[in-house]
Design brief:
alpha/beta, Rossmann fold, eight-stranded mixed beta sheet, five-stranded parallel beta sheet, 21 strands, elongated, binds cytidine-5'-monophosphate
Length: 413
């Protein structure tokens, strides 16, 4: 992990500065000025509550473009998507309990909350509120949800609060917030900073002829969620995917179609990877011969002879040097037993097993429930959660496994 990040990486980057309504909003003026001084292109977005504490004109005068305060009424009919899509980073300072709660719940009822849902850029929040609110379980749970999704947090400080109170909840200093913003952009912030993560996603397609293939029902959503959350936590991510799904900013995409192509893409990147997560549903069998021309109906029912594909994960297990190796197992019966056998057989550190016979988990849907089985013997079951949250839980376990290796490397430096 780096020390003080160089602010130079803010130069030329588009930063949406969200300001929500707390007394600390006055400090956001200084955050705005420092971001602009560092060369960032700053677009301020103020909530209606923020306007009770600070003026729109103040931000418009300091920032790179006029401050916006509403989804409606401006010259741009869809400002949230434009701001969200163009942003390199979104910073919310101060982030009130209300804004934090809306973001965690996915509520978009104003420009700032809608922009947060319309972006793939990293997000940094600087919470500020009274101590009682900060310590409330609802706020802490929302914060945990956001952290799990990869949102970066500049924790509040202890000190004087509004109304003469004192305690934890005071907005971090503008200097600390801008340094954290630079850290996010430099990739030196986040618990996976400096870690190279290779993820596979989607189902492979094994051609029968130029138009037909043997495939499976994997959508790629789980693998893409893993890549996005790992990137949000600061990892350098390569995503080998069979799908056209989008990925978070900064994720390197390697498109592949067949098991063979996936194997080539993964094996060539394996030595440099610290973590490999094989979330893809790789075909176990492929047609032995691919017809060069489209098979004609008139020629009768073709006999398609299958042969096994290379087991990529097993190959990675054999060649493992330092990597944390994670597999997925779609099962329909004896889930734990079968998955545990795969940990052993493929030399894995962790396997995430799903019972794909349940309707609300596994293929295509947005939710999943995982049984996590580790080589150490640890077994844990997650509740039914979104694939993004399951990705966060899996990455929590991976981060724990990386800790000793990272400590060793840091000691060597
Ligand atoms: O043995 P099984 O196919 O159930 O193991 C599933 C795990 O192995 C998944 O992580 C999948 O990505 C990986 N796999 C592979 N190559 C194959 C088949 C599965 O890497 N040919």
């Amino acid at each position: 992990m780096a020390g003080t990040p160089d602010l130079a990486c803010l130069a030329g980057r588009r930063v949406v500065l969200g300001v929500s309504g707390g007394i600390a909003a006055y400090k956001a003026v200084e955050v705005c000025r420092r971001l602009v001084d560092a060369g960032a292109f700053v677009s301020p977005v103020l909530t209606q509550d923020a306007l009770r504490f600070v003026g729109e004109v103040t931000f418009s005068a300091l920032a790179s473009e006029p401050a916006r305060t509403s989804l409606f009424g401006g010259s741009d009919p869809i400002p949230h998507t434009r701001l969200g899509q163009a942003a390199d980073l979104i910073v919310i300072a101060p982030c009130t309990a209300k804004t934090l709660g809306k973001y965690a719940a996915g509520i978009s009822d104003d420009l700032l909350s809608a922009t947060l849902l319309a972006t793939r850029a990293p997000v940094l929040i600087a919470p500020a509120m009274h101590t009682e609110m900060w310590e409330h379980p609802a706020v802490q749970e929302n914060l945990q949800t956001l952290r799990r999704r990869g949102v970066h947090v500049v924790d509040p400080e202890s000190g004087r609060l509004a109304g003469g109170d004192s305690g934890e909840g005071r907005l971090a200093s503008p200097e600390a917030i801008v340094a954290a913003a630079a850290g996010v952009l430099a990739g030196s912030l986040g618990e996976l900073a400096g870690v190279r993560v290779l993820v596979t996603a989607g189902g492979t397609r094994e051609p029968i002829d130029p138009v037909r293939f043997v495939g499976n029902r994997s959508s790629g959503k789980m693998g893409h969620a893993l890549a996005d959350v790992a990137a949000a936590r600061g990892a350098a991510v390569t995503l080998v995917t069979t799908t056209g799904l989008p990925a978070a900013a900064g994720v390197e995409i390697v498109p592949v179609a067949t098991a063979e192509e996936m194997a080539d893409a993964v094996f060539s990147r394996y030595p440099e990877a610290d973590v490999v997560v094989m979330a893809a549903a790789v075909a176990d069998f492929r047609p032995k011969a691919v017809a060069p021309e489209k098979l004609k109906k008139q020629a009768g029912v073709p006999e398609v002879v299958l042969e096994p594909t290379p087991d990529i994960l097993a190959g990675l297990g054999e060649r493992k040097t330092h990597q944390v190796l994670v597999g997925f197992a779609a099962e329909t019966e004896h889930v734990v037993e079968h998955a545990r056998a795969k940990v052993e057989a493929k030399n894995l550190d962790l396997i995430v097993a799903n019972d794909v016979s349940a309707p609300d988990q596994g293929f295509e849907v947005d939710t999943n429930r995982g049984i996590l089985i580790e080589s150490s013997g640890f077994v844990g079951e997650t509740p039914l959660v979104s694939k993004v949250e399951l990705a966060g839980l899996v990455l929590d376990r991976i981060t724990g496994m990386l800790a000793p290796e990272r400590a060793r490397r840091e000691e060597q430096q």
